[in-house]
């Protein structure tokens, strides 16, 4: 693609969002050659430059206009935005696309042996967290008094060391809480990775690149969620089958050589295709059922 102006995206250098961010760009057909020490690199076949940084710096880089785009967790983004509000600095960042990975929740947890006596019992207790602004906002919303102890990592060890009575940290499987004898009592927010952009207008060829990238991301997401299903079925069963497995744009019906009553049906479906669904299709008369993954999709 010929383009005078390139777009610069900030992604996490190392950590939970790095692998999925890179694999998303690769699935979009963007070729990136990496070396171990790479902090900045140019995509080979797309007008995109990639800056590898700590996730906490991504909103600042986009807000200041150093990067046009960034991939970051909503938790980090919202904590950053609250910081801007406190300092009365203009927010020049907006979410361009939710990406569906890096899902987690920011939750308050207390020690297992403590009895949880409702949200009001958290008022005024010392809570260790890396997200003091999100916690303060949540407490204000519930009219509670907040006292946080800001720690940048290993928050879950704070209660055991007597530094705090509770923690407010990210949880995905819940294993870390369990290992540290903690129990989750209140969810403060849910988070997933998002693509953020600077609100400053792109130059026209940058805008084209941005839109092309968004279209490809959407295509990758749709392809990941969709399945291509093929089977044979009696013509009389097609309505029933359609209600069991709705398709995006209708069924493709192909005649079967030497069989007047049956047809081959091809469907692209966004529905999850479970064994249960296949069994229902079979009972409705379908046979030779195949479920295939879709590599690319452009609507
Ligand atoms: O070095 P850098 O600053 O870039 O990385 P980081 O250490 O600050 O962040 P990293 O890589 O741990 O996480 C990056 C982003 O991934 C977060 O900002 C979230 O948006 C998202 N994410 C999703 C998570 C988790 N799930 C998660 N489980 N981030 C952290 N955790 C930690 C959590 O803090 C706790 O220590 O994992 C532990 C809990 O996990 P479970 O599975 O035991 O519940
Ligand atoms: Zn970080």
Mean pLDDT across residues:
93
Provide the CATH superfamily of the largest domain: Periplasmic binding protein-like II
**Small molecules held by this entry:** phosphoribosyl ATP, zinc ion
Give the structural class: alpha/beta
Number of domains: 3
Low-confidence stretches: none
Q: Helix fraction?
A: 25-40%
Order of helices and strands: EHEEHEHEEEHEEHEEHEHEEHE
In short:
The protein is an alpha/beta fold. It has 8 helices and 15 strands.
Structure description:
By secondary structure, this protein is an alpha/beta fold. It folds into 3 domains: 7-101 and 193-223, D-Maltodextrin-Binding Protein, domain 2 (3-Layer(aba) Sandwich), CATH 3.40.190.10; 104-191, D-Maltodextrin-Binding Protein, domain 2 (3-Layer(aba) Sandwich); 226-293, 2-Layer Sandwich (Alpha-Beta Plaits). 27% of the residues lie in helices and 32% in strands. It has helices spanning 18-27, 58-63, 74-86, 132-141, 175-179, 204-225, 238-244, 275-283; strands spanning 7-12, 40-42, 48-53, 69-73, 93-98, 104-111, 126-129, 147-150, 166-171, 182-191, 193-198, 227-234, 252-256, 259-269, 287-293. The longest helix is centred in the last third of the chain and has 22 residues, at 204-225. The chain is globular. Residues 54-56 line the site of zinc ion.
